[in-house]
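Appendix B. Raw example, untouched.
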Amino acid sequence: MKKINSEITTLLKETQKQTGMPPSDFGVVCLSDWVKKYQHPQPIVNQPEFLPIMLSQSDLILIDTIARATSDKLEEIKNDEELIVVKKRISNVIHQLDIAMKPATNESIVKSLQVLGNTFQTELPKDEGLKYYIEAIKDIPPVLLKEAIVKVMKTHKYNTFPLPAVIRETIDNKLNFCHSFYCWCKTALQRVASII
């Protein structure tokens, strides 16, 4: 038979410790309170999918709120210490967008067009035609140009060389979205810079 231990054990009283810092009127608490107060119910900002920096939803809400805020609302967070960090993060996003949205070179456009020509077994436009064809699509960044070429290869039904409009229409919405996001970030950066 087993014997039950009948000794009474007592637990030592634990001392409670506080971790972190108490809330202050500066930094994250102040800025996050300001964002909660003035954010719109549905932010219009989203991030382009090919952007190497992943922004959190709170970053996107912050950019959206700063870009939309009136001057008197911005004055409430003037000289907030966290704005320096926010400015640096938005600047970094803009820098990454500048790199990603850089237009394709003429050489890469011609190579892409040669792929289309080979696929549809047709010749590229000649001389001036090729020059104006390149001009019509040269603002497309390489990452979107590649996507456009693949989509045209999947959907173009005729044994003719596709027009520039056919290439553009496959990615025009994405391109416009990227430009809108870029402008939104630039606006937020200018507004943050004006109150620091």
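End of appendix B.
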